[in-house]
Design a protein that fits this description.
Blueprint lengths: L1 H23 L3 H22 L7 H18 L1
């Protein structure tokens, strides 16, 4: 639980540093992208801190291309 609190503190510091500048400059699109990426990173970090199994994207790529690779090897 300490790790989750630490992650949330770091996220709050990042928001406090970056968001005011984005609002001042009226960079709405950049603020949306920043928010989405920060949320995604925060969720993944908290999941990892809580030892939740996170699927590896390479496994998905392997599952997609493995049949194609097997066909090519047969030739």
């Amino acid at each position: 639980m300490v790790a989750v609190a630490g992650i949330l503190v770091i996220v709050a510091v990042i928001i406090a540093i970056d968001v005011p500048h984005l609002l001042r400059e009226k960079l709405k699109k950049e603020l949306w992208v920043f928010s989405i990426l920060l949320l995604f990173g925060t969720v993944l970090s908290i999941a990892q801190a809580l030892n939740i199994k996170i699927p590896n994207p390479l496994d998905w790529v392997t599952a997609i291309f493995k049949p194609l690779s097997d066909i090519i090897e047969k030739f």
